[in-house]
Amino acid sequence: MYSFSSILNKQKTYPILNIIYSLSNCPKSHYDVLNLPRTCTPKEIKESFIKLSKENHPDLNKDKDAHSKFLAINESYKVLSNVESRRHYDLGLIPNRTEVYQTGPQVYNRGKENNQWTDNTFYANRDRNKDDMYMQKPYYGIKGQERVSNFKVVVICLALASFIVGLQFLAIAKSATFQREDLQRKSQEAQDSLNSLKRKVEINGNQLQIELLNLKFAEQERRSGRKNL
After folding, report:
1. Which of 16, 52, 66, 122 is the most exposed place for a label (fewest CB within 10 A)?
2. CATH number, residue 44
3. Phi, psi dihedral angles at 126 (to 5 degrees)
4. What SUPFAM superfamilies does UniProt report for this protein, alphabetically (predicted)?
């Protein structure tokens, strides 16, 4: 027969074993796949993805599970690298924390909902005391190159786009002006040629009239001379 103490010890041991078993069988989150805490920064996510994807690439790692791990790493990075998808994913990870009370052979559970607005495991609710330290580190992997704010990036992109559009308008305006000047030049050349031709026709026409009159007078004089004979 079992003694009272042995029964009591079993009652204390089984819940612990059940908890350990349940934790070991929990599916891995995207943070677990990348070996990162839920408070990790985007830079840490990128670095871990690059490191793990190299280690588990099927072409380099011949382990039978390498392919499935590689797919899981890519899926985790796809979700966590995007701010919006990460926020939705984090909201789906909110657990119901359970406080366990054991009195003798009875076990009572009291659930306590987690508040996503104050949970410090979320990146948005992280401890910001170390943000300045991370800001001093090279964000793009280049020493001395700090992270550029999104606002500055937007302003630079808009300025660059405006500059390019301005150059295009200037090129179009210059092209139209050049074409107009070229047409005016050709039109003036044609007009000059026409005026020159008119002057030549007028000059040649007057000379021709004079020659015809001279011939007519000469013919009249010749006829008059014959009559006098």
Report:
1. 16
2. 1.10.287.110
3. -70, 165
4. Chaperone J-domain
- Count structural domains, the chain: 1
CB neighbours of residue 81 within 10 Å: 13
Please give the helix or strand (H or E) that residue 24 lies within, else none.
helix 4-24
Task: Take residue 55 and report the two structure tokens written for it.
Answer: 């280690």
Domain membership flag for residue 199: no
The answer, as to whether pTM is greater than 0.70, is no
176-214 CB burial, b ≥16 within 10 A, e <16: eeeeeeeeeeeeeeeeeeeeeeeeeeeeeeeeeeeeeee
77 half-sphere exposure, CB direction, 13 A CA radius: 18
- Does residue 139 fall inside a structural domain? yes
Contacts 24+ apart (CB under 8 A), 90-93: 90/38, 90/116, 90/122, 90/123, 91/116, 93/29, 93/38
Tens digit of each residue's pLDDT (9 = 90 or more) over 185-228:
888 888 887 787 677 667 766 677 677 778 877 887 887 776 66
What type of residue is 218? A
In this structure, what token pair is assigned to residue 83?
């701010």
How far is residue 122's CA from residue 116's CA, in Å, rounded to a whole number? 8
C-alpha to C-alpha distance for 126 and 86, rounded to whole angstroms: 15
With respect to residue 190, please indicate whether it lies within any of the assigned structural domains: no
Q: Which two tokens stand for residue 114?
A: 């987690």
